[in-house]
Design a protein that fits this description.
GO molecular function, one term: nuclease activity
Protein name: Bifunctional nuclease family protein
InterPro entries: BFN_sf, Bi_nuclease_dom
Distance between the termini: 32 Å
Number of helices: 6
Shape: globular
CATH class: Alpha Beta
CATH architecture: Roll
Oligomer: single chain
CATH topology: Bifunctional nuclease domain
Domain BFN: 2-133
Pfam families: BFN_dom
Strand order of the largest sheet: 3-2-1-7-4-5-6
Radius of gyration: 16 Å
Structural class: alpha+beta
């Protein structure tokens, strides 16, 4: 089963300074942090803030390419978490047919914002994401997870990229 989620914010991991995209369950309180690269975080932040750039960025190009091929992005799905790496799929529709394309979640999220399409996370990913795989980092990861789960709307507005 897939759970619909929204991007609730972008922040920086306080221990590693890596960008994190915060996804939140539309129907509940489930929060899923996904660590992303700096460039992808920037692409997401630009679209979240509705900032314009003088020339199309890579994800703008992807959106324009999809539209130019008379296709639409129907949804994106974070499908798997394997070896601490998230996987995603773009669902496109072209000429009445569905096409799936493997992609990185960060790229899928940046494109989903531009295409104004829903974001889903497979229920199994949410279940696996709560498991801490490295016992040496358990305290740090557990603290970060609790911190992320306890963020409120005001907190999400305070942390900028």
């Amino acid at each position: 089963m897939e759970i619909e989620m929204k991007i609730r914010g972008l922040m920086v991991d306080p221990s590693t300074n890596a960008p994190i995209v915060i996804l939140k369950d539309v129907q509940g309180d489930t929060v899923l942090p996904i660590w992303v690269g700096l460039y992808e975080a920037n692409a997401i932040a630009l679209e979240v803030e509705k900032a314009t750039t003088p020339r199309p960025m890579t994800h703008d190009l992807l959106k324009n390419l999809v539209q130019g091929l008379n296709a639409t992005v129907q949804r994106v799905v974070v499908t798997e978490l394997k070896n601490d790496t998230f996987y995603a799929v773009l669902w496109l529709e072209q000429d009445g047919e569905s096409v799936t394309i493997d992609c990185r979640p960060s790229d899928a999220l940046a494109l989903a914002l531009r295409a104004d399409c829903p974001i889903f996370v497979d229920e199994d990913v949410l279940r696996v994401a709560k498991v801490i795989s490295n016992p040496t980092d358990q305290a740090t990861q557990e603290e970060l997870r609790r911190w992320l789960e306890n963020l409120n709307d005001e907190d999400l507005g305070r942390y900028k990229m």
